């Protein structure tokens, strides 16, 4: 096998096996996506793209330029430390593959490291309060759709609950007496 073919195969293996960085973030967290290959090379410009069916430009800067060029992207973004892409308060819609395009200086190779960002679902939390009922079991109560009731409704509810308890107690006592009377009559007949 010739050296040229071997060199081409080694280069193909190198470029096809470059792994992308995985970043996991919580909802509403600030994230900086790092452009990993930038540390070791001279570059002319750095640009960030979000990749889905096509590339969407986010931000670009030329070396020595102070103000970056900001593309028409769906959310605000800016350069972070060492030309990383800073995204504030990320949401699940920000999940995806981002590409850092490094335009290399003369005699160097352009690089395109990718970062895969995964943002957790945003959870809405209702304020929870614990309350203990008469049986001493704990209930979790959400105040999300709570409305204040007039005092008269509360008093009427307590009165109805008290009356229901009294009626159930009277019925229970009547049933217990009836069972006791029947059992005593049966015992008298057996004598």
From TrEMBL:
Residues covered by the Ig-like domain: 29-118
Gene3D superfamilies: Immunoglobulins
Highest taxon in the source lineage: Eukaryota
Regions that span the bilayer: 151-180
Swiss-Prot/TrEMBL keywords: Membrane, Signal, Transmembrane, Transmembrane helix
PROSITE patterns named among the record's database cross-references: IG_LIKE
Signal sequence region: 1-21
Protein name (database record): Ig-like domain-containing protein
Organism: Labrus bergylta
């Amino acid at each position: 096998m010739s050296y040229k073919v071997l060199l081409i195969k080694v280069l193909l293996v190198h470029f096809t096996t470059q792994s992308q960085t995985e970043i996991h973030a919580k909802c509403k967290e600030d994230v900086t996506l790092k452009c990993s290959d930038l540390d070791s090379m001279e570059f002319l410009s750095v640009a960030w793209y979000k990749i889905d069916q096509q590339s969407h430009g986010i931000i670009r800067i030329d070396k020595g330029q102070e103000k970056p060029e900001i593309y028409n992207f769906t959310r605000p973004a800016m350069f972070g430390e060492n030309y990383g892409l800073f995204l504030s308060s990320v949401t699940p819609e920000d999940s995806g593959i981002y590409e850092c395009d490094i335009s290399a200086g003369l005699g160097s190779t352009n690089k395109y490291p990718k970062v895969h960002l995964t943002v957790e679902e945003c959870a809405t939390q209702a304020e929870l309060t614990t309350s203990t009922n008469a049986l001493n079991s704990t209930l979790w109560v959400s105040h999300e759709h709570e409305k204040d009731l007039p005092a008269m409704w509360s008093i009427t509810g307590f009165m109805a609950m008290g009356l229901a308890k009294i009626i159930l107690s009277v019925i229970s006592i009547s049933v217990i007496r009836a069972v006791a009377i029947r059992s005593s009559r049966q015992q008298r007949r057996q004598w």
